[in-house]
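2024-03-11 09:14:02 INFO worker-7 job=invfold-0412 stage=load source=structure_tokens
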């Protein structure tokens, strides 16, 4: 996660309870956390929190819900074999468990003073903060074209594909899922390849756009290099890496 933010003064540490654990795919779950009674959590769509376990293990996760959706924190967590934190979340966490949360952190939020059309670029669970950004934009009725490109290895990794498709009912929203490792076991008739290269196929001139990108660091680095070569001003490339 980006640690060079200027929002740390608004961060705080609070105790939360696990409200729900929802499995979205074979190795991704959605965790809903609710602050203890009387506590309130405020953030900007796209920011992240640190979650602490009792033994001091600390992990950063992007917030997947928009602020207007209530006093809770939605996280999308991928299981990592041998990962102490994800092993706990997948194998032990249950409703009512207490977790200490610190935040919000990060500069990955919508620049509301811009009228440029937006490209949202997500890789894997980098979809989480993009989800919050999109839902915030759609809820406020901001009239800016939004083009979401979500890259994943297989169809199963597009763990909220139906939700993203539902946003297409908004006339200014467009969604392009891209698979890099489609398999015969899960037929795919959509776009394939690297997600940032798919953006360039559709928009070879990015001069007038701004980009919000979240996903693996290698994807972010490659996307930035390619997008700048295709006209995107560097100051309009906003990113965070997972």
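2024-03-11 09:14:09 INFO worker-7 stage=emit residues=242
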């Amino acid at each position: 996660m980006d640690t060079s933010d200027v929002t740390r003064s608004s961060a705080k540490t609070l105790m939360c309870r696990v409200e729900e654990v929802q499995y979205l795919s074979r190795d991704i779950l959605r965790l809903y956390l609710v602050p203890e009674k009387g506590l309130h959590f405020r953030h900007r769509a796209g920011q992240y929190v640190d979650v602490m376990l009792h033994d001091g293990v600390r992990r950063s996760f992007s917030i997947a819900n928009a602020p207007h959706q209530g006093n809770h924190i939605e996280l999308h967590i991928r299981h990592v074999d041998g990962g102490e934190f994800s092993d706990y979340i997948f194998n032990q966490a249950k409703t009512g468990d207490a977790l200490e949360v610190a935040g919000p952190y990060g500069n990955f939020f919508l620049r509301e003073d811009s009228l440029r059309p937006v490209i949202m670029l997500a890789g894997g669970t980098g979809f989480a903060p993009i989800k919050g950004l999109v839902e915030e934009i759609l809820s406020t009725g901001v009239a800016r074209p939004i083009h979401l490109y979500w890259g994943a290895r297989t169809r199963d990794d597009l763990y909220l594909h139906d939700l993203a498709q539902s946003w297409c009912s908004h006339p200014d929203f467009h969604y392009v899922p891209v698979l890099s490792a489609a398999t015969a076991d899960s037929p795919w008739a959509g776009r394939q390849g690297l997600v940032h290269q798919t953006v360039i196929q559709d928009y070879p001139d990015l001069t007038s756009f701004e980009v919000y990108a979240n996903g693996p660091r290698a994807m972010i680095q490659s996307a930035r290099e390619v997008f700048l070569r295709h006209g995107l001003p560097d100051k309009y490339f906003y990113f965070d890496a997972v």
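2024-03-11 09:14:09 INFO worker-7 stage=report msg="The chain has a mean pLDDT of 91."
2024-03-11 09:14:10 INFO worker-7 job finished
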